[in-house]
Each structure stands twice: as C-alpha cells, then as structure tokens.
Amino acid sequence: MAQMGGGSMEIGGADLAVAVFASVVAGGTALTGGVGGPHRTLLGVIIITWIQAGMLMLAMGRDIQMVTFGLIAVGMSIATIDRRRIKIIK
Questions:
Q1: Distance between CA 47 and CA 84 in Å, rounded?
Q2: How many CB atoms lie within 10 A of CB 76?
Q3: What is the pTM of this model?
Q4: Residue 40: how many CA atoms within 13 Å on its side-chain side?
Q5: Tens digit of pLDDT for each residue in 67-89?
C-alpha cells in the first residue's frame, strides 16, 4: 500500500479517538476512577452513535462533528468530577 500511494494515516482511526472518549464519558464513566463499567460504556456508545447519525442526516461536516463530540466529552468530564474530593487551596 505504501509503494502504491494507497496508504493514509487517517485509515488507522485517529479521528475516532474523540468519539470513543465522548462515548465513555457520556456513559457516565468517571475519569477519576471508581465508577463505570461496560454497560455504561455501551450506553454511551449508543448515545454518541445516535447523535452522529442525526448529524449525518443533517449533512453536517466531519469537523463540526468532532467539535460537537469534543464539547460533549469536556462537558461530561466536568459533570462526572466528584467535587467533594477536590481540595481548595487558600
């Protein structure tokens, strides 16, 4: 493939990393550990796939999808932080 010029770095799924991360945190898995599981991750994958299918039906570009998944990932990461464990330095 490399000699024929048919290879590409994008074939490896590098653009799927944001969607996978968004799926995990959308399922409620805490990034700090302790909470999560395969059933929650599967739920997150279903949610993100549903959102992605809707965006494809609306003919949204891949760049808008990546921004949307990034915002979902950041928002859900913030939502799953255990605020009782955060120590405020004064």
A1: 28
A2: 22
A3: 0.69
A4: 13
A5: 998 898 888 888 777 666 666 66
CB 77 within 8 A of CB 35: no
d(CA 46, CA 39): 11
Q: Three-state SS string across the chain, please?
A: CCCCCCCCHHHHCHHHHHHHHHHHHHCCCCCCCCCCCHHHHHHHHHHHHHHHHHHHHCCCCHHHHHHHHHHHHHHHHHHCCCCCCCCCCC
Q: Which two tokens mark 10?
A: 């994008």
Is residue 54 pLDDT above 70, yes or no? yes
Nearest-angstrom CA–CA distance, 4 and 79: 47
